[in-house]
Design a protein that fits this description.
Elements: H1 11-27, H2 31-40, H3 43-56, H4 62-87, H5 110-125, H6 130-146, H7 152-183
Helix pairs in contact: 2-6, 3-4, 3-5, 4-5, 4-7, 5-6, 5-7, 6-7
Length: 184
Amino acid sequence: MALAVRPRWSLERIAALDERTLQRVAAARTTLWTGFMRTITHTSLWLPLLVGAVAAAGDHSFLFGAAVGGVAAGVASLLVQVVKVTVRRARPSMAFCLAKTLDKYSFPSGHSSAAFAVAAASLFLAPLLFPLILLVASVVAYSRVYLGVHYPSDVLTGAVMGTVLGLLTATGGAALQALSVFLG
């Protein structure tokens, strides 16, 4: 007789934890924090700031830093869209939602993925700014849960995806830069 082993973290348990966390975050909202989160969540605000910080800092040219930061965010955003239309997880209930969304799918978070891609790239390209850029990326990611447009697991998955893609983009960019110097 075989014993059925139930995994500790099933999709149902993760979904239940997502829902409970979203409810707790919604219950703790304040007018001041809601205004701040609505502002910080706009890609047109934080993405140019993060990419600009990566471009301006470090031992590389501004153009190289901007290209790596921009490519990291772009690749992360593209991959997120592929996963979204494949998984098709619906967004949280409109009862929680305080922001407009561009699509109806929630998993994974594109904002989190792009922000963490730039943050991860900054680890190589602008290491002195990395803690600050990581803080901004984290606040952007949290804003998505706070505003009720993503579940926590959407944001966590987006952050992990963005981190991996940002590290790959930065190391690939550094390798291309070294190769161009070598080839002269």
